[in-house]
Amino acid sequence: MIISMTGFARREATGPWGTLVCELRSVNHRFLETGFRLPDELRVVEPDLRQIAARELKRGKVDCTMSLRAGHGAELALDIDPDALARVLARLRELAAAVPQNHTVNLMDVLRWPGVVRENTAGNDELANAARQLFTEAVSDLVAARAREGARLSELIEQRCTSLESLVAQVRARLPEVRVRVRERLNERLAELKAQVDQDRLEQELALLLQRLDVDEELDRLTGHIQEIRRVTRAGEPAGRRLDFLMQELNREANTLSSKSQDLETTRAAVDMKVVIEQMREQVQNIE
Q: CA-based angle 52:54:55, to the nearest 5?
């Protein structure tokens, strides 16, 4: 089972503090990178949210946006400390008496004075707990979405593996004919030159030539890499980096096959292999 790094999740919750909405977007990345856009009231919980994300996700660039819409009457809740307000007003009256000029006092400035408006600690704790819970649920949804996308990618990769196997089989089936043609071309060339050659020496040189052109080893390695891709995609562990390495190895073998080819059909098959490998590599970039 493979997991995609691409996904989206959205959750919302309602309480006395209003409506809290959490949206998560995830794209591919070499490592796990989390970014948060939070209301000022929830900045304090950001470290906790990062820990939750790191516990559930391994790789990907994850952007979290939380928004808070105050419920009906929630914006009017204002807890004023009457004693603190009385002290501030008393000091303002003393200052007004000491200053001969007329001065006006902005009531909003009075409310901003430390201690006049009491923080609703219980309400803030309730909101923070709700944010943690909502984020946890959104991350669970994101993990499920990435798993579904991973299943789709797994199917596509399996299709590409089947295509590669078919191309490898085509090249392997042509090997006997390719060897016969190499011998025929060499004999035709010697006939054109009308040269007298030692037959034993000719057989030795032909054997060396066929050895240089032999692609059995490349085909065996291609088959082995395909089998390993299938094993990795079915294992329950992060597979992205391993699959990326296997894509490099597949491409290396296809290039070697192409460079050794003395047959047009084999060359075409090698080119088709590289196209399939590139398609698979693009899909692997999104795997966790």
A: 65
Q: Is 262 found in the same domain as 154? A: yes
What residues contact residue 286 under an 8 Å CB cut-off, 6+ apart?
Answer: 4, 5, 6, 28, 149, 153
pLDDT tops 50 at residue 76: no
**Within a domain: 39:** yes
Q: Whole domain around residue 245: which residue ranges? A: 149-176+214-284
Check whether 208 has a pLDDT greater than 90: no
Query: Both 229 and 278 in a single domain?
Result: yes
Say if residue 47 is in the same domain as residue 164: no
The answer to whether residues 66 and 129 belong to one domain is: yes
Domain of residue 70, CATH code = 3.30.230
* Residue 195 included in any domain: no
Structural domains of the chain, count? 3
- Model confidence band, residue 237 (pLDDT cutoffs 50, 70, 90): confident
Q: Is 212 exposed, middle or buried (0-12, 13-18, 19+ CB in 10 A)?
A: exposed
> Residue 263: pLDDT band by 50, 70, 90 thresholds?
confident
